[in-house]
Write a structure and sequence with these properties.
Layout (H helix, E strand, L loop, with lengths): L3 H14 L4 E9 L4 E8 L6 H6 L16 H10 L4 E7 L3 E9 L11 H11 L4 E8 L2 E6 H8 L7 H19 L1
Parallel strand pairs: 1-5
Antiparallel strand pairs: 1-2, 2-4, 3-4, 5-6
The structure holds adenosine-5'-triphosphate and magnesium ion.
The site of adenosine-5'-triphosphate (ATP) has 20 residues, from helix 1 and helix 3.
Length: 180
């Protein structure tokens, strides 16, 4: 994968497939500390100790359609290629938190990519799941919580095309403000 946002979408998909009702995506760009940290936390079914031990191995998957699961190994490789690390905390029945960090200015660090499209795709792809997206750039924060948005929508589905377009623009503007 060429962009970190595609890894984020992939890891968030693991979370929704694990039956999560809430997925929290946090991106922290700490340029002073030269560190980019991405975490995806969910309240899904979690992993058994046995699964947790071998989940970084590409031949570990509970998919039935193929025997290779590359989502986590790819994300880990992206982090390790630029001096970073990936760690997984998971408790069966409670949820999972996957955190990866990267040296911000490392030459091999993939660009973050298109976060507005990623968030829009994650949210509209699993309308029954709630998402909290927190993006921090040098201490300034943008926050999106679909539970708040759904309250305002009063029954209009969050995957409605116009709502999806609004989500995209809202995130784009929010991130532009942070980068200013
Ligand atoms: N958030 C999660 N909660 C519970 N189990 C998870 C979670 N993320 C991953 N897993 C388990 O770890 C396995 C490996 O995940 P990984 O993303 O590496 O591959 P995959 O999802 O099986 O396949 P791919 O990502 O290539 O489509 C999954 O099949 C699933 O059983
Ligand atoms: Mg996966």
């Amino acid at each position: 994968m060429k962009e970190l946002s595609l890894h984020i979408l992939d890891i968030a998909k693991n979370a929704t497939q694990a039956g999560a009702s809430l997925v929290e995506i946090t991106v922290d760009e700490d340029i002073l500390k030269n560190r980019l940290t991405i975490s995806i936390k969910d309240n899904g079914r979690g992993m058994s100790k046995e699964l947790l031990q071998k989940v970084k191995d590409p031949f570990t998957t509970t998919r039935t359609t193929r025997s290779v699961g590359l989502g986590i190994p790819f994300f880990e490789m992206a982090a390790e290629l630029c001096g970073g690390k990936l760690s997984i905390d998971s408790v069966e029945g409670k949820g999972t938190n996957i955190t990866a960090w990267f040296e911000y200015d490392h030459i091999d660090r993939q660009p973050l990519g298109d976060m507005p499209s990623t968030i829009m795709a994650a949210v509209t792809g699993s309308p029954e799941v709630d998402f909290i997206y927190r993006h921090v750039i040098c201490g300034k924060e943008f926050l999106l919580d679909t539970r708040e948005i759904k309250k305002v929508l009063k029954g209009v589905p969050i995957n409605n095309v116009e709502v999806a377009t609004w989500l995209f623009e809202y995130v784009s503007e929010g991130l532009n403000m942070l980068r200013r």
